[in-house]
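Deliverable D5.2: sample structural annotation.
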Amino acid sequence: MIQDIGLYAGEPEFAGFAELGPVTAEHKAWPSGTPSMLEVNAQLQAQAARLGADAVIRVVYTGHGRRLKAVGIAVKRVVSVVPATVDIIAAEWDAYSYC
C-alpha cells in the first residue's frame, strides 16, 4: 500500500537498498489557506510506489508563502543471499569426519 512507503529525512532503517530515482511533490494552498504536509507526503509516496520503491530517503521540505515542496530519493530494499551457516558447518564436518 502507498501509505506503507516510509519517508526518511536521512537514510532508511534497513540496510541494503538501490536508488530508483528522485521524486518531488508540491502543494499550493490557493487562493488562501496553508499548504498541507500530508498532501505533499502522499504525493511523494504515490510517485515512489509507481517506481516500485519501499521508501523515500533524504527528504527535504521547502516552503515559501502558500507553497510547500518536498524532494527525495525513491529506494528499493535489496536482499543479499548468503549461504546458510548450517550448510557450511555440515560440509566442514563431513570433511573432518574422514580424517
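Annotation notes: The chain has a mean pLDDT of 82. The CA atoms of residues 19 and 75 lie 4 Å apart.
The annotation will be released with the project's public dataset once the embargo ends.
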